[in-house]
């Protein structure tokens, strides 16, 4: 081992094992180990045998489990805890994006935006004139200066004949050049599809900006990754997860290719995290709920690997539905209970008044959503719903209420992802209905998407209650964490720091150094529970993971500092030194 005074007990240093007690395979001792059990216990040592925790307690007491072949790691006072459970991400897409033209979520001027894409074009000149260029990591809301808009003309000015598609970091907006629009047959006559919008310019021509389902014709033309490329992307994503300390995750929008890629990773012996999958349901499929549920059950029969084991496996026991888009501008496709505000004055003397829209129609009709949830529940499938605006949240909770009424006592654990704004009248309903708000805590800060894009469109009162993690928890909601990677960079510790402080990083600029809204945020312990035991409970995995207790899997991470006692702003600097999954080391840092 490479950090602290950590070592191994061999035959010369082993201690006698008590009569009748089998020795452990792995012992971590002399540390501060947060267990995330019901009492938030902190202990000194943990012992793991056959991939499961067999004992927690004092460093003196664990000696009874040390045998000649036991691997003993002296934590030398280091902090350890359960592995992280990320309850909402898109890992195959993330792995693929690591290999694509990436704008890296940076705030950019139009000139910088164009230079970045041109550099990718220049680096792939053999793909001229017809090869598609897909660009990712575009932080649309942070374009400089504030309020900058882009269109197909922004891309048409580049030195290329190739079709170009740029996907924003939220994954809900696409910018296409004229060649791409032409190939996708998106014209002046193209109308908005269900679950999407085609933006048109003043002359009625498509501007190049496509929201949600409106981008499907463009995506349909992109070259499909091969099975080998997808498997490589899955392994790349898993490597990134181990470095962050992630030992379980939910792929929150899966298709067959996701299942095949991670199955291949497992067959190669490289599945280093417990992989749960929520299969995508298209809004149009709600017309035939029995058929779509039968499709998901078919995936479960084909890919689900059964009862969870210490060795990571795949489960297919969730379904994903997008109920709305995103509340941030310039899209404003989140479904709101009240209208977005518009400026009835001038730029110099603004006068913000209710506008003509509360966002688009919900992607699922409320009554059909309720029927679909009941059908999923009959087959033991947990719904996982994208809900960004407060109207989407309200309708999703209504559908869960219908599910509970139809199937009282059924152990169904609905997840409501994001919940960026929630009506105060709905706060207590999460706990009452057993619905998990799965929150991307890195958004709970002042930034271009939460300040410039929402400050005026929401108005001051609604802006106060954005990202309501603390108030939802106080109202009894089982708050879980989900990074939404690759919508943002994978940085779980920065996200947890924001969840506690509600503050951006100092380097984000002076204009973003105030707390977001009036929400109190979480304590460090509450944040750790959200990313361990509560997220495991959301995934129906809390009986075997999410905390370090006897009988549970030996999913443990060792950190370079104690997130429970350091200054809250320092949580962002936490580094993972070692990651164990089922008692097997899958990551070791070279940091001493």
Q: Give average pLDDT, whole number.
A: 93
Number of strands: 26
Q: C-alpha Rg, in Å?
A: 25 Å
What is the CATH domain class of the domain at 91-219?
Alpha Beta
In the CATH hierarchy, what is the architecture of the domain at 91-219 at level 2? Roll
Major beta sheet summary: 8 strands, parallel
- Helix amount: 25-40%
N- and C-termini, Cα separation: 9 Å
- Topology-level CATH name of the domain at 91-219: Diaminopimelate Epimerase, Chain A, domain 1
Shape: globular
Strand adjacency order, main sheet: 8-15-16-17-20-21-22-23
Structural class, please? Answer: alpha/beta
Primary descriptors:
592 residues, alpha/beta, Urease, subunit C, domain 1, Diaminopimelate Epimerase, Chain A, domain 1, 8-stranded parallel beta sheet, 6-stranded mixed beta sheet, 18 helices
What does this structure look like?
With 592 residues, the protein is an alpha/beta fold. Among the domains are: 26-82 and 551-588, Urease, subunit C, domain 1, CATH 2.30.40; 91-219, Diaminopimelate Epimerase, Chain A, domain 1 (Roll). The protein is built from 18 helices and 26 strands. The strands form five sheets. An eight-stranded parallel β-sheet has the order 8-15-16-17-20-21-22-23. Strand 15, helix 8 and strand 16 (274-280) form a beta-alpha-beta unit. The radius of gyration is 25 Å and the shape is globular. The N and C termini lie close together (9 Å).
The gist of it:
With 592 residues, this protein is of the alpha/beta class.
């Amino acid at each position: 081992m490479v950090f602290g005074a950590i070592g191994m007990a061999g035959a010369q240093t082993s201690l006698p094992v008590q009569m009748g007690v089998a020795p452990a395979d792995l012992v971590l001792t002399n540390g501060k180990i947060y267990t995330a059990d019901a009492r938030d216990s902190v202990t000194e040592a943990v012992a793991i045998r056959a991939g499961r925790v067999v004992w927690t307690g004092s460093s003196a007491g664990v000696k009874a489990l040390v045998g000649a072949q036991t691997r003993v790691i002296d934590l030398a006072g280091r902090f350890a805890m359960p592995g992280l459970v990320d309850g909402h991400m898109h890992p195959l897409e993330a792995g693929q994006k690591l290999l694509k033209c990436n704008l890296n979520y940076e705030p950019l001027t139009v000139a910088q935006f164009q230079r970045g894409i041109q550099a990718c074009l220049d680096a792939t000149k053999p793909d001229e004139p017809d090869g598609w260029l897909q660009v990712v990591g575009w932080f649309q809301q942070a374009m400089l200066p504030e309020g900058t808009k882009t269109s197909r003309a922004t891309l048409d000015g580049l030195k290329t004949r190739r079709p170009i598609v740029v996907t924003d970091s939220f994954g809900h907006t696409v910018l296409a050049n004229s060649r791409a629009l032409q190939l996708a047959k998106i014209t002046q006559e193209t109308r908005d599809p269900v679950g999407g919008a085609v933006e048109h310019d003043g002359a009625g021509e498509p501007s190049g900006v496509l929201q949600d389902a409106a981008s499907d014709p463009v995506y349909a033309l992109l070259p499909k990754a091969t099975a080998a490329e997808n498997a490589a992307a899955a392994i790349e994503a898993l490597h990134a997860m181990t470095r962050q300390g992630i030992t379980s995750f939910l792929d929150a929008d899966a298709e067959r290719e996701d299942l095949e890629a991670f199955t291949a990773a497992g067959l190669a012996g490289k599945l280093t995290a417990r992989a749960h999958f929520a299969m995508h349901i298209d809004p149009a499929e709600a017309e035939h709920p029995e058929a779509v549920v039968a499709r998901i059950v078919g995936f479960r029969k084909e890919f689900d690997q059964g009862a969870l084991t210490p060795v990571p496996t795949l489960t297919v026991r969730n379904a994903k539905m997008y109920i709305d888009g995103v509340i941030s501008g310039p899209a404003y496709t989140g479904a709101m209970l009240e209208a977005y505000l518009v400026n009835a004055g001038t730029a110099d003397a603004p006068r913000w008044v209710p506008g003509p829209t509360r966002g688009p129609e919900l992607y699922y009709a409320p009554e059909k959503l309720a029927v679909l949830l009941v059908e999923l529940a009959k087959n033991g499938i947990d719904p996982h719903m994208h809900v960004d605006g407060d109207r989407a949240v309200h309708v999703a909770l209504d559908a869960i209420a219908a599910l509970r009424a139809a199937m009282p006592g059924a152990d169904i654990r609905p997840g409501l992802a994001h919940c960026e704004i929630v009506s105060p009248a709905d706060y207590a309903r999460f706990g009452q209905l057993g619905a998990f708000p799965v929150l991307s805590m890195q958004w709970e800060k002042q930034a271009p998407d939460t300040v410039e894009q929402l400050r005026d469109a929401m108005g001051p009162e609604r802006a106060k209650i954005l990202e309501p993690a603390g108030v939802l928890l106080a109202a009894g909601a089982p708050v879980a964490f989900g990074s939404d990677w690759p919508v943002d960079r994978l940085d779980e510790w920065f996200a947890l720091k924001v969840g506690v402080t509600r503050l951006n990083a100092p380097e984000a600029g002076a204009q973003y150094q105030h707390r977001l809204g009036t929400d109190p945020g979480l304590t460090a312990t509450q944040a750790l529970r959200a990313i361990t035991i509560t997220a495991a409970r959301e995934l129906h995995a809390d009986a075997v993971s999410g905390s370090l207790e006897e009988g549970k899997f030996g999913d443990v991470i060792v950190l370079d500092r104690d997130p429970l006692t350091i200054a809250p702003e320092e949580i962002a600097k936490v580094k993972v030194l070692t990651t164990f999954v089922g008692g097997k080391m899958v990551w070791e840092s070279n940091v001493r």
